[in-house]
Design brief:
The protein is α/β, with parallel strands linked by helices and 380 residues long. The chain is 36% helix and 19% strand. Strand 9 and strand 10 form a beta hairpin. The longest helix is centred in the middle third of the chain and has 21 residues.
């Protein structure tokens, strides 16, 4: 099987839902990172064989095959095609998988994986609004016959995880505080500077709260009466985009590109869709087994902090060293722009491995429907 290399990774700062980036059209958000990716890598954009872009709410400004419109909005060659995909929160991590698989299959040499989501302009849930407005069921007879009419939501899934693993509010808030503290330290040290491409006057991630405290978190109401969850222990509604360039060995040589990391393992697994958020646990076990590695081999992990119970349960089951998990903070502090998060996390992972000299990095995230992608890379 051919090798696939990451030869470029860039992202916008992650903006808040009411920040300056919220006014940027999603196609222009995508165009910004796509153009920046081509400039930074020095790759010939006409040699790109596809643009695979993740986006969850593909309605309104995020419709009409956003990958294609973003590429054209960047002024890049009309000869390059694009496709927009939805694997819920893992959409642009799946974009990385599809791009890498195209290269590893030998059918493609240079593919862009990207992700965009403007949750300020296109609110979360916009893609199901029609059904809700028309009183139509979101699930058909086959689903309800199997799972009944019970609530299926990430919020309930996170609370079910708290109950299963025994997480209490105080533990969740301590984790959330750590996320903000780590992200604030990373911003202060300039660790994200090399990976971000400022846009619309926004130069740094907007969601980090360096002055938050456990006392402030304790004053928030739970999401529902009797629940452990509050807004403080959940990912932020955000705006952002990311892009990664995947190349074959021959493309690296032909275009004079610089490999940053090698794709080691691409795994995908489903789990209980009612719990929804637990799939990173078995998916990580599968990926490590296929790669012939253990968690002791992993120097840096990026696991999406959709809710604090997700990384906490994952770390408990995998025996992970929390010092190496989201070392520069996660989505609780930095935000979660849905379809963009996969490429945002990969950009963070690649740059952190290079900054620290680590060898192996692992990325995973929970996804709607009870799914999870896992990507293992090796620094080159």
């Amino acid at each position: 099987m051919a090798e696939a290399y990451i030869v470029g990774a860039v992202r916008t700062p992650v903006g808040t839902k009411k920040g300056a980036l919220a006014g940027v059209h999603p196609a222009d958000l995508g165009a910004h990172v796509l153009k920046e990716l081509m400039t930074r890598t020095g790759a010939d954009p006409a040699a790109v064989e596809d643009v695979v872009m993740g986006c969850v709410s593909q309605v309104g400004p995020q419709s009409l095959d956003l990958a294609r419109t973003a590429w054209l909005s960047a002024g890049l060659p009309e000869t390059v095609a694009g496709v927009t995909i939805d694997r819920q929160c893992g959409s642009s991590q799946q974009a990385i998988h599809f791009a890498a698989q195209g290269v590893m299959s030998g059918t493609q040499d240079l593919v862009v994986a990207s992700g965009v989501e403007n949750m300020g302009m296109v609110p979360m849930g916009s893609s199901v609004k029609y059904a809700l407005d028309e009183g139509l069921p979101l699930f058909g007879d086959g689903w309800t016959g199997r799972y009944g009419a019970q609530e299926i939501s990430q919020f309930r899934g996170a609370q079910l995880m708290c109950e299963k693993w025994g997480f209490k509010r105080a533990e969740l808030e301590e984790f959330a505080l750590q996320s903000h503290q780590r992200a604030a330290a990373a911003l202060e040290a300039g660790r994200f500077d090399a990976e971000t491409a400022p846009l619309a006057g926004v130069e740094r991630d907007e969601g980090v709260r360096p002055d938050t405290t456990l006392e402030k978190m304790a004053g928030l109401d739970p999401l529902r009466e009797g629940w452990e969850l509050t807004a403080a222990v959940a990912s932020q509604i955000s705006v952002g985009a990311g892009a990664v360039l995947i190349a074959s060995e021959s493309a690296v040589e032909r275009h004079g590109l610089t490999p940053l990391a090698r794709i080691v393992q691409l795994s995908l697994l489903g789990d209980d869709p009612v719990y929804m958020l637990t799939a990173p646990i078995p998916a990580t076990r599968l990926a490590l087994e296929k790669a012939g590695l253990t968690m002791d081999d992993i120097d840096v992990t990026e696991i999406n902090e959709a809710f604090a119970p997700v990384p906490l349960a994952w770390a408990h089951e995998l025996g992970a060293d929390m010092a190496a998990v989201n070392p520069n903070g996660g989505a609780i502090a930095l935000g979660h722009p849905l379809g963009a998060t996969g490429t945002v996390l990969m950009t963070k992972l690649v740059h952190e491995l290079r900054r620290t000299g680590g060898r192996y990095g692992l990325q995973t995230m929970c996804e709607g429907g009870g799914q999870a992608n896992v990507t293992i890379i090796e620094r080159v």
